[in-house]
Amino acid sequence: MNNKELHNPEEDQHQLEFDWIFCPICGNKLPNVQNLRFCIKCGMNLKFIKENKKLPSPNTLNPYKSTSQYPLNQYSYEALELPKIADEQLIGPDKPELWSSMTSIGLPLGAFLFMNFLIGGFFALLTYASLDINTIFELTLNPYFISFISLFELIFILFPVLYIRKYLQNPTLKNRFILLGFTLRGFDRKKLLKEILIGLSFAFVGVLMVALVSFFTEEIIEYLFGIEIIQDNNLTGFLPMDIPSLIVLSIIMILIIGTSEEILFRGFMQKGLERRVGSKMGILLTAFLFSMIHVIGFLFIALDSPLVILISFLLSFFPYFSISIMLGLMYHWRKENLIAVVITHGVYDVLTIILAFFLYRIF
Questions:
Q1: From CA 325, how far away is CA 114, in angstroms rounded?
Q2: SS3 319
Q3: CA of residue 277 relative to chain centroid, distance
Q4: How far is CA 252 from CA 245, 325, 349, in A?
């Protein structure tokens, strides 16, 4: 009698049922029972994992266990089931699903709140150092101090860079920036020059577009509310004091503000949303949240009346929304590469303060 005749399939099947002593998901010790299909604690479908070598969908859970006891929610499921991205897949025509819509929105908002928490703590330290309110207020109008505070926006790069490592087979820092679209991979000199020219051109287009949007927004508000909007010249306190401070602030806007905000909002938020809800909705949602984050301060400023707060909010929201829509469309057009978009954002910011710097001194 040979070995095949001695082979008992039932014994192999019996052995298969006892491959795991503990549940691979929740760690609960499994009972010594044949044909155990579900974990008695978390409801995980153990048989499905053995047969398919992957996690089951939530609707295959044990119907006799409460789904609230299941340790994985829908979004962690999606992340666990997605294969990690190989180096050769970082740039290409394929657009696999990445992080969930909730993560696409939640992580940038968390980064924004954390940045403001740190800035608030910094101002608390200044207050503790016996600086009076007037001195602190004067600091906030100082362009050099504004440049320093802008360094906190590096948090906008830190959060997504740390998070996306789990989506990569080789999570080097270089690959993380490639996944976020901030890369020169595949660029030759001609293509790089093209991206630079596109970025510079759209920066000027953005300035003209925002000027028109601001003008029409002001006209519509005056018509709807029957009021006359008068610009406050006291806002010159936020402008650079001299040419050196203008240069410093311009460098910060290009290297820090433009880069960090585009990595977070376009490279992470819009990229994740487009993969989940489609390009149009992804661009619109990103533009809306980008604008809200920039103008939400108007909701907390103690102005003359709720009407003044509303009008100030609208006058700021629509210009931000328009430039954000343009940046989102550029990011989509440039096949999720941020080079031209970052240049447009940074140069647009610089052009606005340069124009304001000289116009306020002329008029």
A1: 25
A2: helix
A3: 15
A4: 11, 23, 10
User: What is the C-alpha to C-alpha distance for residues 348 and 271, in angstroms, rounded to an integer?
Assistant: 22
Location of structure tokens 């579900």: 38
pTM, to two decimals: 0.75
In the chain, which residue ranges form alpha helices assigned H by DSSP?
3-6, 9-16, 46-52, 74-81, 101-128, 133-140, 143-150, 155-163, 173-179, 189-225, 243-252, 259-262, 271-277, 279-295, 306-333, 339-362
- With a CB cutoff of 8 Å and minimum separation 6, the contacts of 62 are 37, 38, 39, 43, 45
User: Which tens digit of pLDDT belongs to each residue from 231-254?
Assistant: 665 555 556 677 888 899 999 999
Reduced to 3 states, what is the DSSP secondary structure of residue 22?
Answer: strand
pLDDT digits (tens, 9 = 90+) for 58-113: 555 444 444 444 444 444 444 445 578 888 878 776 777 788 899 999 999 999 99
Higher pLDDT, 33 or 182: 182
* Angle CA 57–59–63, to nearest 5: 130
Please state the length of the chain.
363
Which of 95-109, 187-201, 295-309 has the highest mean predicted lDDT (pLDDT)? 187-201
Where do runs of H (alpha helix) occur along 43-172?
46-52, 74-81, 101-128, 133-140, 143-150, 155-163
**pLDDT of 1 strictly over 90:** no
Interhelix angle 189-225/306-333, nearest 10 degrees: 150
Phi-psi region of 93 (alpha: psi -120 to 50; beta: other; left: phi over 0): alpha
Our CA angle for 234, 128, 303, nearest 5°, is 30
Q: Both tokens of residue 312?
A: 């100030």
Inter-residue contact 151 to 157 (CB < 8 Å)? no
- Asked if 294 and 153 count as a contact pair (C-beta separation under 8 A), the reply is no
Token digits of residue 230: 């008068």
What is the secondary structure of 112-149 as a DSSP string? HHHHHHHHHHHHHHHHHTT--HHHHHHHHT-HHHHHHH
Cβ density class 111-145: b for 16+ within 10 Å, e for less:
bbeebeeeeeeeeeeeeeeeeeeeeeeebeebbee
Amino acid at 31: P
